[in-house]
């Protein structure tokens, strides 16, 4: 499936129409996540790295406890989108059926479809201390966000999430029209590699559900290019996640978890 599409549009400069030209837009596709034959969620995504997205979403939504709870993933394109068929272990599928909800995701929305308030505010397990970093090692890391935004470079409309080691070296990165989906793709890759230590940097704000997704997958340190919300800070403090907002490489705001920052 194409990631970029060309449209003929009217471009303008200083309110003056310059005439008809071609422009490039990112492809947005509806992706249905189906567990053991039962549809659970529909998300709007950039149609690449979908296996990692399926794994990351399934982990970060607490549907499974480990990537080993997934027995198989099959991706199929159809006329109106893409279906990802995920085969879960019997134990995890039974648990999913007990709390099943009808969730419809939209770009930039991470908690659409929750039916009860207590489904939104979930308790987070305290994170261990397995990594400490020196902030100077991450001064050049913002360029790594741009390096994975190949669709974004053409269209200007994608978010990115990258995973670095404790010295600021690049491990992996993913982009998507949705910031939550970009993060899920990265969390899925991270889980499949079975490597836990490292730092995640996201191109967006740090909202509550972004912190929740990261913490549920064992992430200990998250940098956000934009701001953090009040609930994100509270959640990070609750589980002991190191959360840094307004990250610009050489400056930022440490909201929680200073014990992982070395002088």
From TrEMBL:
Pfam families: FdhD-NarQ. Mo-bis(molybdopterin guanine dinucleotide) binds at residues 246-251. It comes from the Bacteria. Keywords: Cytoplasm, Molybdenum cofactor biosynthesis. InterPro entries: Cytidine_deaminase-like, FdhD. It is found in: Cytoplasm. The active site is at 109 (cysteine persulfide intermediate). NCBIfam families: fdhD_narQ. Required for formate dehydrogenase (FDH) activity. Acts as a sulfur carrier protein that transfers sulfur from IscS to the molybdenum cofactor prior to its insertion into FDH. Belongs to the FdhD family. This is Sulfur carrier protein FdhD. It comes from Frischella japonica. The lineage of its organism: Bacteria, Pseudomonadati, Pseudomonadota, Gammaproteobacteria, Orbales. The gene is fdhD.
